[in-house]
Each structure stands twice: as C-alpha cells, then as structure tokens.
C-alpha cells in the first residue's frame, strides 16, 4: 500500500431539506487500499458514495477523487473510476458480450483493446460458450462476477462497490471477495460499502457510519482491540448502542 491518497474528504455533508444524510465526514483512502465503508442500511453509505462518484453534489465540505474535485470535475471523476451498484448495473436484455462492449465503449476504449480484453475476460470467467447468452439467463452469482469484471474492465485507478454482495449466499460472497483481492493486486483501489460486518475482516481499513457520521475508522484488528471485541459485529453493536444513548 502506498501513502499516496486517492480519496480525500473534509467535512463532506449532504442534506435533503431538513434531513442530514451525510454529516460532516472526513477521511482519506490510500492508493492500493481495500477500504470498507460499513454501516447499517440507512446509515448514509450510498449517499456518501454517490457524492464521491460525482453522481450527487455535496451540500458542503470538500472532496477530491483521483485528484479531481467533486464540485468542478465530476465528468473526469466518472471516467477515472469504476462503479458497481447493488443492482449490478447490467442490462438484462443484452448478451454477456454486448454488456462488456457497451460499458467499454462508454469509457472510450479502442476496438482493439475491447476485443482483446473481452476475449481475456470471457476466458477468465469461463464464459466463452455463454458469451451470446442474455444476462437475464445467468444465475445471480455469475451476474455479480460479470458486473464486477465490467466495472474494472477499463482498468480504473479506483472502483466503488455499493453493497456488491447483497442477496447472495455466503459461498458466492467469498468467491466475490477473491475477485476483489485479484483486482487490488493489480493496483486498483477498492472502496466497498456493505452492511455485512464480517466482510470488514477482508479490508485493510474500515470506517463505520452511524446516522450519517463516521463513528470509527481504523484497521479491523485495531478496532477490535480498541473496543475489546471478538468480532466486527460486536464493534458495530457497541457504536450503535452508544449512538442510541446519545439520541436519548
């Protein structure tokens, strides 16, 4: 892992009317890191990620993604990152090959690059014989793997994964994390949101959001030591209870 920062935020905030979805969060992500953005559903994770991806303007605060400003350079951010939503971002009425080529074309890759990389990807996923099959015919786990592969197809510096393992079985979840490790080994920075606390163990560092705020940020081992917890679930429960007491 390098010391170079690929994400920096300072008091980043998003309000919808009187509701504060993301409340003055500040953190950095280093190049080559697997960074977990954890929290319960509704904690503000997806809203924060949308700002970092250039999909939603902050209400206030600062953020830089791959050297680009989230207010002024959103299009440059979008072209420098990969993104996979919890809906997998695939077109079900297109074939596997058509999905790959469509997303590669969005990022302006050459026909030669697309052709060669498509063949390599289909081989890696063992989908050569399925290339002309509609995506809707694939099992959920395969859709997940394909969506991730498409998100990093253009070899971005940074990929955002929003609840990528939601709704799949534990074995498929673990297989998906193998793909994340493989991508990280090539130098891609991984920013992943999840509400599965056990997945925090796979990350270099994690932040834990509670009610729009970052209440903890460190390595999983250090957080468990600090909170005298046997698991990240226990860490999260302690933070949630603390937040509930504060609310009272």
TrEMBL record:
UniProt domain ABC transporter: residue ranges:
7-236
The answer to whether keyword Nucleotide-binding applies is yes
* InterPro entries assigned: AAA+_ATPase (IPR003593), ABC_transporter-like_ATP-bd (IPR003439), P-loop_NTPase (IPR027417)
Record-annotated membrane-spanning stretches? none
Read off the Gene3D superfamilies from this record: P-loop containing nucleotide triphosphate hydrolases
Q: Which PROSITE patterns match?
A: ABC_TRANSPORTER_2
UniProt keywords (A-Z) are: ATP-binding, Nucleotide-binding
Is the keyword Manganese in the record?
Answer: no
Q: Provide the GO MF annotations for this entry.
A: ATP binding; ATP hydrolysis activity
- Write the protein's name: ABC transporter ATP-binding protein
Species of origin reads Panacibacter ginsenosidivorans
Q: What is the lineage of its organism?
A: Bacteria, Pseudomonadati, Bacteroidota, Chitinophagia, Chitinophagales
């Amino acid at each position: 892992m390098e010391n170079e920062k690929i994400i920096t935020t300072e008091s980043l905030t998003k309000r919808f009317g009187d509701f504060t979805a993301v409340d003055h969060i500040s953190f950095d992500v280093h190049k080559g890191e697997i960074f977990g953005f954890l929290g319960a559903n509704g904690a503000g994770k997806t809203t924060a990620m949308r700002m970092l991806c250039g999909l939603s303007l902050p209400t206030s605060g600062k953020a830089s993604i791959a050297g680009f400003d989230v207010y002024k350079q959103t299009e440059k951010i979008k072209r420098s990152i990969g993104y996979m939503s919890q809906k997998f971002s695939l077109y079900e009425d297109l074939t596997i090959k058509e999905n790959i080529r469509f997303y590669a074309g969005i990022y302006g890759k050459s026909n030669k690059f697309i052709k060669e990389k498509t063949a390599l990807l289909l081989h890696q996923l063992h989908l050569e014989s399925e290339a002309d099959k509609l995506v809707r015919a694939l099992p959920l786990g395969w859709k997940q793997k394909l969506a991730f592969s498409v998100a990093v197809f253009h070899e971005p510096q940074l990929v955002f994964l929003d609840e990528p393992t939601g709704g799949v079985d534990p074995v498929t979840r673990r297989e998906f994390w193998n793909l994340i490790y493989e991508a990280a080994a090539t130098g891609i920075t991984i920013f992943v949101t999840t509400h599965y606390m056990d997945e925090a163990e796979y990350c270099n560092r994690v932040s834990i959001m509670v009610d729009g705020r970052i209440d903890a940020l460190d390595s999983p081992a250090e957080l468990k030591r600090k909170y005298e917890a046997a698991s990240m679930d226990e860490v999260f429960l302690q933070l949630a209870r603390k937040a509930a007491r504060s609310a009272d």
